[in-house]
Design goal:
The protein has about 425 residues and is an alpha/beta fold. The protein has two domains: about 210 residues, UDP-n-acetylglucosamine1-carboxyvinyl-transferase, Chain (Alpha-beta prism), CATH 3.65.10.10; about 200 residues, UDP-n-acetylglucosamine1-carboxyvinyl-transferase, Chain (Alpha-beta prism), CATH 3.65.10.10. The chain is about 30% helix and about 25% strand. The chain contains 14 helices and 24 strands. The strands form six sheets. The chain has a four-stranded mixed beta sheet. It has a four-stranded mixed beta sheet with strand order 2-15-17-16. α1 packs parallel to α2. The structure holds ligand EPZ. The site of ligand EPZ has 25 residues, from α1, α5, α6 and α12.
Length: about 425
């Protein structure tokens, strides 16, 4: 068991390089199943969600090689059409459900157990199933296994009831070799959707409109291998922007696409932070900032990302006045508030709304990471708190942040990852 130990109160200074995007990488790794030729994927982040996805592909028969620290080569030629992806593989992360769309798209059948992932309340997959059925597949769920099969896949129109990244990805994967034109309306517009579309087009697909709410996919006979480089991670970049701001730091966040970060930059400026956009970097200067309250409403891209909500909450605990966060994507994404309260934060949660009263400062405490982005927010809280903060369950954080301790240490943070002996099981005390 490991935990982070942070001695807070130090301002972050210097520069940090952002790694490849987790949510693009996991979708693109699944998409490599669509061809029997080799795909070379560069700028892959070294995080556990990616290694788990790569391991699943290799366990179902693909040749998967890390050719260097950030490049993966995948050849899915040996994956069998009859493959079944069991629960012990799929429950480790949410993105395992992309295997349904990829196997269906390649083989017209898929048997994939239901996914895992962060707990934010109910996470239905009805829009995924609706898309598969409109393409001509029969889909049922039995013993937590999603079974999908089709004689053929035919282009169709899919109007998403809600904007959903996962279902948009899955329908794209299933439709690229369907017969005819598929139109996805009310599609997700996240940067990782565009990245997946560009990857598929590098494989010979015909995907247009990604990044808008209408994506048109003309089915092609076959896809071929390709070489592709993943975009920088929007949420990792945003996390370091908020960490730099909250610690009154002065940091250059390099290897980013500033356009992807506009909603985060705008919110930081509203909060009283100096933000300067470069070609491929963002400069955060909060050395003289006095944080002012502001309201945040999470929305699908290009709105303020839900995956930045916990991190922003930490900054707002330090802003003078009352701030309100409305979480419009997930039904229960405020579990981390209990941990912040232990550090002196004053936050009231009522359903999908959190009301934050600014406080003078936070104090270090033993806390835990409830999920990936909540864990990242706990790190920011530890960085700004006076005293020592210990964070348990850091495996959540390692799902999505490459070399976080090294990157923060290089920025002047006092953070270490330490081994913790397994908790001693309480044994009954026998009478003397
Ligand atoms: C993706 O999850 C991301 N995960 C999440 O990031 C992110 O929070 C989320 O998109 C929203 O941006 C990956 O990309 C691996 P959705 P996903 O389908 O695809 C409802 C992180 O921190 N919905 O866009 O599961 C759903 O309940 C992770 O990196 C349906 O109703 O999210 C939610 O309210 C955490 N029916 C909304 O849509 C469906 O069939 C958005 O969900 C599908 C979704």
């Amino acid at each position: 068991m490991e935990k982070f130990v942070i001695h807070g109160g130090k301002s972050l200074r210097g520069e940090v390089n952002i790694s490849g995007a987790k949510n693009a990488a996991v979708a693109i790794i699944a998409a490599a199943i669509l061809t029997d030729e080799t795909c070379r994927i560069e700028n892959i982040p070294n995080i556990s969600d990616v290694s788990i996805m790569a391991r699943i592909l290799s366990q179902i028969g693909a040749d998967v090689k890390m050719v260097n620290k950030d490049t993966l080569e995948i050849n899915a030629g040996k994956v069998s059409p009859m493959v079944t992806v069991p629960d012990e593989m799929t429950k480790q992360l949410r993105a395992s459900y992309y295997l349904i769309g990829a196997l269906l798209g390649r083989f017209k059948c898929a048997r994939v157990s239901m996914p895992g992932g962060c707990y934010f309340g109910v996470r239905p997959i009805d829009q995924h199933i609706k898309g598969f059925e409109l393409l001509g597949a029969d889909v049922n769920i039995e013993n937590a296994m999603v079974n999908a099969s089709a004689k053929r896949l035919t282009g169709c129109s899919v109007y998403m009831d809600v904007v959903t990244v996962g279902a948009t990805v899955n329908v794209m994967l299933a439709a690229v070799m369907a017969r005819g034109l598929t139109i996805i309306e009310n599609a997700a517009k996240e940067p990782h959707i565009v990245d997946l579309a560009n990857f598929l087009n590098s494989m010979g697909a015909d995907v247009r409109g990604a990044g808008t709410d209408v994506i048109k996919i003309r089915g092609v006979e076959k896809l071929h291998g390709c070489t592709y480089s993943i975009i920088p991670d929007q949420i990792e970049a945003g996390t370091y922007m908020v960490a730099a701001a909250a610690t009154h730091g002065d940091v250059y966040i390099r290897n980013v696409i500033p356009k992807h970060l506009e909603s985060i930059s705008a919110k930081l400026v509203e909060c009283g932070v100096n933000v300067e956009d470069g070609d491929d970097y963002i400069h955060i200067d909060a050395t003289k900032s006095k944080f002012v309250r502001c309201n945040v409403k999470t929305m699908p891209h290009p709105g303020f990302p839900t995956d930045m909500q916990p991190q922003m909450a930490v900054l707002l605990t330090l802003a003078s006045g009352t701030s309100i966060i409305s979480e419009s994507v997930w039904e229960n994404r405020f579990r981390y508030v209990e941990q912040l309260t232990r550090m002196g934060a004053t936050i009231q949660v009522d359903g999908k709304v959190a009301v934050i009263e600014g406080v003078k400062g936070l104090t270090g405490a033993p806390i835990k990471a409830d999920d990936l982005r909540a864990g990242a927010a706990m790190v920011i809280a530890g960085l700004v708190a006076s005293g020592v903060t210990e964070i348990d369950d850091i495996y959540h954080i390692e799902r999505g942040y490459e070399m976080m301790v090294e990157k923060l240490t290089a920025l002047g943070a006092d953070i270490a990852c330490v081994d913790v002996p397994a908790p001693v099981k309480a044994t009954a005390i026998t009478a003397g």
